[in-house]
Design goal:
seven-stranded mixed β-sheet, four-stranded antiparallel β-sheet, alpha/beta, globular, single chain, Aspartate Aminotransferase, domain 1, binds 4'-deoxy-4'-aminopyridoxal-5'-phosphate
């Protein structure tokens, strides 16, 4: 039984070698897709092909191999630009991941645009990586952090958001999809309200890119960041999309090779976009792997993926709620990818460990969202996060696994 009639899930699962793996002698049930996704064969093959047949540094050699590696990297940049509908390829900056992309903007935008007393708006449901870089920028620039609160369902309070703006607001940085609650935020609305006050917006799309169509032009968002590894690509590569006009105004984040036009001991000038922000040798294989991952997603079709995931989430949500004492944390209006829950009287770590022994991989803890846990006054949650390659049978195994664990611990 597959999650949907549109996708041939058995065929898709055959593309992911890890899903064939056994853990403790049973086929693994992988429900930790929010942390990282598994990699399909075309991505693994792209990595192997690169290292076997054209491993070389980029933008440095006239020789054939370097040219081929450079072409591979730049083709991937084009694929990313197309995937999120960026106007220009050079608005795509390759980084190590979401975390580095946010740090880049917080540092570089901060250095250029933040003055003492200026304000930055984030939200109560941010991942630590969309909190701490802004705190560093505040410390560095003398700016102040403002936080959009959420309600008990895990929805942002839009009226309160509205009230946070002042003459001093310089940037808004919000997550599109919450990694701890699954909340899908109304980003079109959030961006529009900030733009009505001429305030630019950064969206953390780490949990959106794999579950939602992203169109940076129709959103008119100023910065958008994500990690390759959450969308079936290798670890070590991420993306910063930024509007050309803003990126051109911002100073470099790191100095080194590749990011310069001319270096003298007296003065150095910067390369044009995107290279101004890409100092040093990039993760060439990872970038090429990201291109292969986006090809794979396009081939299957994001719409079909979203439909399958939606159906699976629905099923999981219904089945989980049949478990006595199980409480889902976060019941927002719209949800994607993730269900966080607790079972009465059981610490999430204990439940996670017993599920692990039943070959079921879930995440337990604060999910890098300690303020969210504090808000709900809980030590953490058990988080099952889904991908289109998961099945209803796997959800059934999770439900049985929780019941068995609860019986053992209860
Ligand atoms: N933001 C969100 C919403 C995330 O889910 C994650 C990863 N869990 C990150 C940021 C950080 O991503 P990375 O560790 O790949 O930089």
């Amino acid at each position: 039984m597959s999650a949907t009639t549109k996708l041939d899930i058995a065929k898709i699962r055959a593309d992911f070698p890890l899903l064939q793996t056994e853990v403790y002698g049973r086929p693994v049930v992988y429900f930790d897709n929010g942390a990282t996704t598994q990699k399909p064969l075309p991505v693994l093959q792209a990595l192997e092909e690169y290292y076997r047949s054209y491993n070389s540094n980029v933008h440095r050699g006239v020789h054939f191999l370097s040219q081929k590696a450079t072409d591979g990297q730049e083709a991937a940049r084009r694929k990313v630009a197309q995937f999120i509908n960026a106007r220009h390829d050079h608005e795509i900056i390759f980084t190590r991941g979401t975390t580095e992309s946010i740090n880049l903007v917080a540092y570089s935008f901060g250095k250029r645009f933040l003055q003492p007393g200026d304000e930055i708006i984030i939200s109560a449901m941010e991942h630590h990586s969309n909190i701490v870089p802004w705190q560093l920028a505040c410390e560095d620039r003398g700016a102040v952090l403002k936080v959009v609160p959420m309600d008990a369902n895990g929805d942002l309070m839009l009226d309160e958001y509205e009230k946070l703006f002042s003459e001093k607001t310089k940037i808004v940085a919000l997550t599109w999809v919450s990694n701890s609650l699954g909340t899908v935020n109304p980003v079109q609305e959030l961006v529009a309200r900030a733009h009505a006050r001429q305030v630019p917006v950064l969206l953390d799309a780490a949990q959106a890119i794999q579950h939602t169509p992203v169109d940076v032009q129709s959103l008119d968002v100023d910065f958008l960041v994500f990690s390759g590894h959450k969308i079936y690509a290798p670890t070590g590569v991420g993306v910063l999309y930024g509007k050309e006009s803003l990126l051109n105004e911002m100073p470099p984040y790191q100095g080194g090779g590749s990011m310069i036009k001319q270096v003298t001991f007296a003065k150095t000038t910067w390369a044009d976009l995107p290279f101004k922000f890409e100092a040093g040798t990039p993760d060439v294989s990872g970038i090429i792997g990201l291109g292969a991952a986006l090809d794979y997603v396009n081939e299957i079709g994001l719409e079909a993926i979203i439909e399958a995931e939606h159906e699976l989430m629905q099923y999981a949500s219904e089945r989980l709620q049949t478990i006595p004492g199980l409480r889902i944390i976060g019941q927002p209006k719209e949800k994607a990818g993730t269900i966080s829950f607790l079972v009465e009287g059981i610490h999430p770590f204990d439940l996670g460990e017993l599920l692990d022994k039943q070959s079921i991989a879930v995440r337990t803890g604060h999910h890098c969202c300690q303020p969210v846990m504090e808000f709900f006054n809980i030590p953490g949650t058990v988080r099952a996060s889904f991908s289109f390659y998961n099945t209803k049978e796997e959800v059934d195994r999770l439900v049985e696994g929780i019941k068995k664990s609860a019986a053992m611990l209860g």
